Amino acid sequence: MHKRGILALAALCMPIALAACGGTQDTAQTAQNLAAARTGFKTHLTQQTRDGTPVPQPPKGVLDLIRYKSPAGQLAAYITPRPAGSGRHPAIIWITGGDSNSIGNLWDKADPENDQTAAAFRDAGIVTMYPSLRGGNDNPGYREGFYGEVDDILAAADYLATQDYVDPQRIYLGGHSTGGTLVLLTAEMSKRFRGIFAFGPVAEASDYGGQFFYADLNDATEVKLRSPIRWLGSVTSPTFVFEGADQGNGDSLDALSAESSNPQLHFFKVPGRTHFSILAPVTTVIARKIIGDAAGKGAVSFNQLELNMAPR
């Protein structure tokens, strides 16, 4: 992204990075999982908002603009072009921060101190999809703030799995900030991903102070169904939560880690990194692990030392 675009997105994300993550109530992991809890529930939006801005056309040969079918209708997404050669390839869905419902310039080289493009994945040859979500860009539907968007992400995974050059058993999911919160909720809803990487999520949807939340904040059920800390026991796939130790949603990471007894969940704070500067080095490490997994070198996993020593 251009420097100007990065600064604008950073300004949008900064309140998230500094969101107060105070004590939660009723955070005990229940026997009921998130998918069951959502069954039959219909969210009631107090705000009906959508972007309305057309999706920018990406440069030819870098990303393709496609549409995928979700419960909200036909939604826009960027996807890397078909890889050269035959065979099936690992793939990742990446959800951006800030207004995660919309996508924009994800092709220009970004500042390594704030690389929200997750370019490390496509640079490594991993099929990369950047879906927009309901109410974003010129999509149908309204923003729901961490609710219906989960269904859109699962629909994007359905689209990827039908591509004859994608290995449907090696589809990963990652996201940053609001995107990190969304992918953690998606991990709590579905076991279809080989691995999930959540950067800088919050524990409770209310930690955003009403920003990116379009239902009634006083409705305990609306908040609970959007709050990852309430459903940690629902995660059934390897899920990794990262945050910079120097600045960000570290309190949320601590709260999530303290609440979790799920062996599928792994939490890492990276010293010397912030909510933003953690992205470039750690996505590079993740990309290398995904390629190694596809080559039969073992499932993706991490240790604190290798994250601490990620390229600076």
What strand line-up does the widest sheet have?
1-2-4-3-5-6-7-8
Structural class of the helix and strand makeup?
A: alpha/beta
Helix content: 25-40%
Low-confidence stretches at least 5 residues in length (pLDDT < 50)?
A: 1-30
Strand percentage lies at 15-25%
The arrangement of helices and strands along the chain is HHEEEHEHEHEHEHEHH
Helix tally?
A: 9
* Gyration radius over CA: 18 Å
Shape: globular
Look at the structure and give the mean pLDDT.
91
Q: Give the total of beta strands.
A: 8
Q: What composes the largest sheet?
A: 8 strands, mixed
Amino-to-carboxy terminus distance: 20 Å
What does the secondary structure layout of this molecule look like, with pairings?
Layout: H1 3-17, H2 34-38, E1 64-70, E2 73-79, E3 89-95, H3 119-123, E4 127-131, H4 148-161, E5 166-176, H5 178-189, E6 195-199, H6 220-224, E7 239-244, H7 250-259, E8 265-270, H8 279-294, H9 304-308
Parallel strand pairs: 3-4, 3-5, 5-6, 6-7, 7-8
Antiparallel strand pairs: 1-2, 2-4
Helix pairs in contact: 4-5
